[in-house]
């Protein structure tokens, strides 16, 4: 068996980028796609995000060797149910959801007996929709697969090969551990960014227009993250609740300690923390996950 | 009177950028500079950050029409005392410190009878030192002046003209209000970024190497801010304590409310907040304080 045809369900940032990346890196592989929104389907056709845009989810998945669900995590179960009548027995069913335990349970429940291998490409931007995708989104980024116990090694290797062909490096992880790691590296940063932007919008002493004008002092970076899709992120927080609350508790404790240091004028405690945090930045740059230049080197995604 | 010679004290990111910007935009104006660190002075000479690098702070300021202190806010008073013997009676003394009330009080105390007009260019990067500066740092950025009561209008106009020549738009503000606004748009974002990076470094369940590998999910943006200079930021938090603690209190309340919404599974509350925060992002982009492109458009600073 090998992957000769791929069905992509949900043609937004992730689904569109996968379609474009397959066209670029795996030109022999056929792609079909579906999105619940007719306007998204129409834009997806215009941009040729997939070889064929179908008006029916069942047609889109029929005969596909690999089906990738690229919808918000709260919509995974519904999409899986809807496509089931067209799903080939041999198909690998995967997804790109930002949380994995809840999605894995939902897909196993809806598609018993099928080969389900959840995945999460750790790559994205704050933009969404059918105009947001681009073929190089996955270059030099990690893709985490969370195969269930007893997963067939050959099928896992096929899915790994697929993501590597798109430019990713693949890691295998337990779904629960994935959710804890991503709570720290992605979910909590988003939650904090949403919060501070919300706080800043609601102040009486400082106007919104002042917040906007002087945002170059650091705040603007948070607004970028806080401009991410509301539905996607609502679903992530609802589905990864336990890990998010756990990590949020740690963060709040640390923030309280820092608050106390400021109140007491304990400059040494502040200086110590501010010095330790630089080391992580250096490693991130060394490992190619960000760039030291003022433009972050993200221009290479254009 | 007009500004024909400028003395820059502290030749790091800000001081170096001012020197280079004067050379580019005001080629008729002479610049001299001093830094406490001999290695910084030597690099400053190599890069020609100012016309003349002096080994003595008193020589650097002698006869200057404008003296700009570009040292950490905790070092402003010491630098002002040290330069006092060389300071001309007619000189405008200004600075670029990130907090303004404390600096203003300190400079008034050390330099009674002199014309002191504190300033804060809201422009920066996470890098510091004599190699970090560049001439276009202030382009399209705000510079806030916080003149004391009774400040001479003509001198204020001169300083305004100087910053406008460097590419900034100038705003006049009360020092206390400045400190509140910047607590929101700059100081709290930095504090939060330092905290989350610290929290992530200290976990037992998630390794540092995992945090680094999967940082592209949002975390890496926080590490950039949390790589800022420890001394500079320690001084900012110590000198702007009251406004920082006040704003931190608001942020913590809002975070607690969001935490409760996640615990209760209140998806509507999450979706509402995540939708509201997008509007601010749009305004920031419209007003040229950030860019919608994936590289943030910061390439124009190179
Ligand atoms: N954005 C990121 O940075 C990122 C990174 C990694 C992983 N992810 C994950 O990728 C998935 C997709 O995110 P995205 O950023 O690509 O979102 P997106 O751009 O909003 O695309 C999602 C698309 O799925 C459609 N959709 C929703 N429910 C559907 C259903 N039942 N059947 C068919 N189509 C449906 C949506 O249509 P409507 O607009 O009509 O709802 C939308 O067009 C999410 O699970 C997210 O967690 C995102
Ligand atoms: N970085 C930003 O994004 C930014 C933005 C706006 C405003 N500011 C403000 O600008 C000021 C300078 O920040 P920066 O980023 O330019 O820092 P920087 O790159 O570290 O430069 C500061 C320089 O001042 C020197 N210095 C310290 N004490 C001194 C003294 N008493 N006399 C003479 N030189 C002394 C330092 O030498 P040593 O290394 O030996 O200490 C260092 O070379 C700070 O007040 C900061 O709040 C910064």
Automatic annotation (TrEMBL), chains A, B:
SUPFAM superfamilies: 6-phosphogluconate dehydrogenase C-terminal domain-like (SSF48179), NAD(P)-binding Rossmann-fold domains (SSF51735). Signal peptide: none annotated. InterPro entries: 6-PGluconate_DH-like_C_sf (IPR008927), NAD(P)-bd_dom_sf (IPR036291), PDH_C (IPR046825), PDH_N (IPR046826), Preph/Arog_dehydrog (IPR050812), Prephen_DH (IPR003099). Residues 4-292 form the Prephenate/arogenate dehydrogenase domain. Its EC number is 1.3.1.12. GO terms for biological process: tyrosine biosynthetic process. The keyword Chaperone does not apply. Pathway: Amino-acid biosynthesis; L-tyrosine biosynthesis; (4-hydroxyphenyl)pyruvate from prephenate (NAD(+) route): step 1/1. It comes from the Bacteria. It holds the Pfam family PDH_N. The keyword Oxidoreductase applies. Keywords: Amino-acid biosynthesis, Aromatic amino acid biosynthesis, NAD, Oxidoreductase, Tyrosine biosynthesis. GO terms for molecular function: NAD+ binding; prephenate dehydrogenase (NAD+) activity; prephenate dehydrogenase (NADP+) activity. It catalyses: prephenate + NAD(+) = 3-(4-hydroxyphenyl)pyruvate + CO2 + NADH. It is an enzyme of class 1 (oxidoreductase). Belongs to the prephenate/arogenate dehydrogenase family. NCBIfam families: PRK07502.1. This is prephenate dehydrogenase. It comes from Paraurantiacibacter namhicola.
